[in-house]
Task: structure prediction
Amino acid sequence: MTPKGTQEIRIHIAHLQRTSLIDYPGEISAVVFTQGCNFRCPYCHNPELVDPSQFTPPLDQDEVLSFLSTRREKCDAVVISGGEPCIQPGLVQFMKRLKEMKYLVKLDTNGSFPDVLSEVLESDLADFIAMDVKAPISRYSHVTRCIFDPGAVARSIRIIMRSNRAFEFRTTLVRELLSPEDVLEIGREIEGAPCYVLQRFVASKHVDGRFLGASSFSDEEIADLKESLREMVGRLIVR
Ligand code: SF4
Result:
């Protein structure tokens, strides 16, 4: 499948969900889960995609692409999720292969690789971007347990806002890490976004086992936030 004489850089795929009715808005999709992430959000419910000691042998990329090439009539879109897909050096090539198959492509990202996002958008490789906004910019390292340049997240927000693609920003509401005032601060940082998703935190398996006892915001707090965020963003969705 790779042209003779060229070496394809591969992405590490941990898992392929063959059919999903919920991961690409309004479309039937397949979901590719990539392995590895630069963040260590303690509430992450995919530790097997984040903690290298829990990695399983990756799937064969050619087999995944070959399978997807047979599914085009049954499936409209491919979602690339993780982990963090943008740490994969072969991401752009992989997305090109999906676009050659005429799939709609959605990229789920934590927004810490603005240069990759730029390349993906400028090359017309994504039709939908979903970016997690973990915290107000000033509190990023606290929530992601990772030292990095939070300015990268601000750049990603600007790049996505200026693109004319469909997109959503989303924040997981974990009381132990964020306050309602933090979420309002995020609202100010993404002001003008057409869609903002507040995700209730649900305890399951986590990167940090101590977060099994963590909690989400109350219904009353979420209702107050909806009211306050109304002026800042377009559609507000609570999941
Ligand atoms: S929740 Fe955090 S640690 Fe988990 S995959 Fe997303 S960015 Fe990485």
